[in-house]
Structure formats: C-alpha cells, structure tokens
Amino acid sequence: MSIIMSVSTLLSALLLLASTATASHYIGGLMTFTPRKNPDGTYLVDIRLREGHYTCDPYDYWYCGFGDCGSKTLVSGRVDSSVSSRWCQTEGVMKRTVPNNSPFQLEKNSCCWISDIVSGIGNFKLLTYIDLGERSDTSKPNTSPVVTTLPVVRVPQNCARNYNFLSYDSDHDQVRCRYGLLSANECGMCNQHTGFTLDQNTCTLSYSFKPTGVYAFELVMEDYPTQIINLNYIAVASAVRSPFNNASFNPPLSKIPLQFAVEVEAPAPSCVEGEYLPRFLHPTPHHGEHLQARVDQELEIRVKATANFSSITDVVFSGPLNSTKETTTTGEYVIKWTPTSEEYGQNFAFCFTAEGQYGLRSYQSEMRCVIVVVEAAGPKAQVTCTKDTMSVSIERATISGIHGDHLRVNNNASCTVSSNSTHVFTTFSLNGCGTQIDETDEQLIFKNTIVTYDDPNHVITRKHEFEIEVLCKYQKKSSITTMFDAHRPAVNFTERGFGSFSYQFEFFQSDSFGNIIDPSSYPLEYSVGQPIYMEIAPVSVVQNTEIFLESCVATPYDNPNYPISYPIITNGCEVDETMNIYTSHQPNVRFSIDAFKFIGQYDKVFISCSVILCQANNPNTRCAQGCTNGTQVAQSSHVHKREAAIQTGSHFISQGPLRMRRSASLTEAISPNLNLNIVFVAGCVIAVVAMVCGVMVYKSRGSKVKYQLLKSDEI
What is the 3-state secondary structure (H, E, C) of 281-297? Predict the structure, then answer.
C-alpha cells in the first residue's frame, strides 16, 4: 500500500510540475460570448477564449466560479504567431448549454506570466461574468462586447503610442475598460504601470515613457446600457441595470478579461511612421472600419505596409479560429476567414500589426483593428475554370433588380454578359477582358469583375449598384500550362477617323527581317544574350499612316500589368541598353533586344507593347514627338482629344512566350555584359498546371469584399 501511495504522490507531483512549467509561458488572454435561447427553453452560449503562449498548444483550464455553467463542448486551434515577439495565439470555441438564464461566472487561475515580465513571474487570473437575463430593450440575453488584441505589442522607448482596443457592442451599450481588481479575483499581479495612461471610456492605453522591458496588463471590459432596463429571469427575480455613473453603484451587464503585454524596446532612430516603424498603405482597412462577411463566403482582408529603412517581414494578426494568412508577390498580406451558418448575425474583431526588420532590430507598426459583421449568404453562382477561360453563371433569383443587359465584364463593351429567365452568364478568356493576375507563394489567381453600367447619354440611374469579382485559382506546380504556349493572333481595333485595322506582332530569324519564325514553333527558345528580332505591323496598311512604339514591357506571364516586369521602352524612350529600332516613321516598326530571363524559376518571357497609329508627317502627333518625358506625353493626349482624326489611342499588343534554353548552371546562363537585361526577382515562382477552384466575390452598395468557394476540381 505504501508503494502505491508513493507512486501516486510522485505522479501527481510530476503532473503539477508539468502543468506549472507549461503555463509559465502565458502571454495574455481574453474571452467574449454570444448567447441565444434554444427552442426547448435552455440557453446556448458561444464562448470564444483566446490566449497567447510561447507554444501553439491550446489550454483549457477554465472552471465554473458560481452559478450553473451547464455542459460544454470545445474546439480549439492556432490563430497566428510572431517570431520576433515570441508568441503564438490560440482560440478555443466553447459552447455551453445551460438550463436557465440565471447569471454564472467562468474563471481561470494558474501560473505563470512569462518570465520576461518586469515585475517578475506571477500567477494569472481571468474572470468572465455572463448574465443571460432577458433585456427589456431587446427581448434577448445580453451579448458581451467584441474585442481582440495581439498577445504582445511592441513600442520603441522614445516613441509615444496609443493602443485603442476597438470594442463593439451589438446591443449598442456603453463599453468601458478598467484595471482588474485582486479582491474580485480578476487579475494575478494587478499592476497599474506608470508611464501608461488608460482612458476607461474609450478603452485606449497610451504609452509615454518607461524603462525597456515587458509589462503585463490585466484589464476588465464591461458594458452598461445607455438607458434604464430590466433583466428578466426564469428562476429568479428581475434586476435593474442603468447607465454607468459610479462603479460602486452600477453593476455591469457583463465582465470579460482583456490581458496582454506591452514590450518597451530600445529607442528607434526615428518615430516617424514609414521610416523605421512600418506604415500601412492602401488597401489596408482603417482602424475601426466595419467589414461585411457572408455565410460560407470567404472574407479577405488585405494588409500592406512599407518603411524606408526597414524591410517588411510579416503581418501578424488576432482573429477568429480558422483564419488564415497568405502573402502575394506585390507585398500584400491577405487574412482570410469563412464564417459558418452558426456565426450568422454575430460580430468578430480582427487586429493586426506589421513587422519590419532593420539589421538586428525588429520594429512594429501601430495596431489596427476592424469589426466584421456576418450577414446571410449572398448571390448563388458557379465559376468554372478551364486552362484558358473563365465561365460564370449566377442565379437571377439571388440578384433581384439586376437585368442581364445592364451587366458587363470589367465594364468592357466587347465583353458582354447574357441572361435568360433563370441565370446570368458569361465566358471570357483568362488573357482577355482586362483579367488581372495576383500571385501568392502557392497560387496564381486570375481576377475580373462583373459590374452594372449605364447608358453614357443618361445622367441618372435607377439600377441597383452591383459588382461581382470572379477568380480562378491555379496551383503552382510542375511546368506551365499550354494555355500560354500559343502564338498570338492579330489584334483588331476600331477608331474614328481610321476605321477598323489590325496589328500583328511577329518574331524574325535575323536582322534582315526576311523570314518570320513559324507560329507553330511557339514557345520560341532563345539563349540568354541572343538577339531577338521583332516587328509590329498593320495586317492591312492604312494609307498615309505611321506607327509609333510608345512602350514595351517584359513580364513572366501574358499580362502587361503583372507586378513583376522589366521596362524595355517607356514614353518612346529606349530603357534597355541593347534595344535597337530599325525603322522609324513607317507603317511598321522593327526592333530587337538581347534575350534575358527573369531570375528565379520563371522560365518564360512575354513582350507587350503599346503602339499608336498616326497621320504620317504630321508634326502635331505623338509619333512625331518621339522620346518624351511624362509632361509632354500629357500634352500629346490633349492633342489627341482635340484632333482625334490625326492619331489613335494607345493599344496593347503582346507576343510570346519566349523560353530561355537551360544551361548547366545559372552562373553560366548569365552574361556579365547583360547589365539591365537581367531582372532580379525575389522569390521562387513555378508555373501552373493544376486548377484549384473558381471563386466569386459579391459587392453591393456600402459593402466590402466577400468571397465564396464555388467549385473545386483538377485539370
């Protein structure tokens, strides 16, 4: 018996030691809740508990402080992590079913805050007070404020900063924040640090100056009605709640914990945002902005930051479980989340900050927070992606008030949308109708929009404002698809004063321009440094005209607006030092450059040029001006508008792809004489073969971007 007792005692001690060691990595936590009444008279409370730790393991040590806390289920997982701040945030989605609407309280007491805390390692305590009494103003139980924060926010010692913990209350109550009280079991260390000021009415923590170190904050967020209301209960007498006047006499409707750490770091060379500290850029949403999401549709929050001296290394965020994050080749960080039908009608908070690196120092931007309101599902549509087209079919019943004749793709008159009694539908090329390409580490994303348009002769509209963004996602694997391997046909245009005309972009075997390279041999292969001979010419010569090569750009994909590009000609000026133009003031233009490749695993190059057709020998045309700066180009546009018959607008025409012959090594392939011919590209992009899915985004008046996954199959 004594042996059994010794083993049992030892096991208990080991378990306690393990629990204490694990919990000593605590870096803040919070809890919010949303209740609703079940048909059988019980109550279901959706509780979200978010905690920060050194590790990504979720922890669930909450216990019932008082009242009937009912039965529970729990699903938990990782939200996001920060390498520079050494934290990982997890969220548990707890559902508690309670038999009545009497108040109850959840608590958590354990050891310990992280060892970096200035005041030393200490226990942490969290408390959530939930009152399910039916409000006389809403006839529903009270919902807590919605809030979140990063576990650790960082600030240079010499830079003042405000942290506004964006709190939204769906009952439109007054929300207040205060320091936790040890006597109420609301905090572990219960410090109120000098150098920081807490505005209780706005829930804003302001930093002025403090010695470097990590400071723990254990706040309590409370909500109060804006008028006197009654709380009615099934099992107990009703209670009265009134607007906040004095904490001693006004009990709150709910209490939730808000705990985090502020790390005061060594002084920065400058406190100006955008120098060392990252500064947010468009399309980053503003602090406090309300975004709309739809059930079963993917919400996308795009965040971009910059700094003159620091390089942006990450964007870290706090949000609901199942949120994800991607990066694009344009430097945007995309936070994605898809709400479920159970989350319809609820509100969720997202907070994020950008991190920049300068030498061994890491700097953090301001923290921005937004509120996401989950609405019902939007239009029902199907997006079908093939190797070279995108097809969209939308159920008319889900877009009432919109006529098919009032829709276009990208507001392009030549990219029409058809309709019948049940559906609106269209099909267009991945390379046409202004389709844009976005890119992440794993996918290429082709995007376009279907929008309403008005007759330009009308000055009013009675059509419902409407926009759907459609996407085709392709997994980056293996070699490129054949959709980009075909020779480009002639491009047709129509302009007043010139009628209909066509341009053809061709490659030739030598500078004699005698033999066109067979279109069936595309993609063409070149060695790096080998001359490439090109000609852009009208298919049928328009009498008394000349062609002007306004600009040319090289891209790894057939899109002149692709974010990774290399300029060859700009404003009629030769940018590439190997550029040679063989004809001038002729119906056609012949030119050459030395072949190059994009560094990385881009194995193809497309050439896209902007050309203008002008009256020959007219000194007032853009063709006659030749190489100009931006100011003179603007003037030529004015000439074009005033004398439309003397020149056309700019028209893009592209050809390719060109494939660079592989050599034994990249070093052998790059000639030291190429200079600007080599485009240095960060990252590693392999082309596309596997189509992932078609996606639609619904936008209506005053709404934000909303995504829906609609189709998934493999090519």
Answer: ECCCCCCCCEEEEECCC
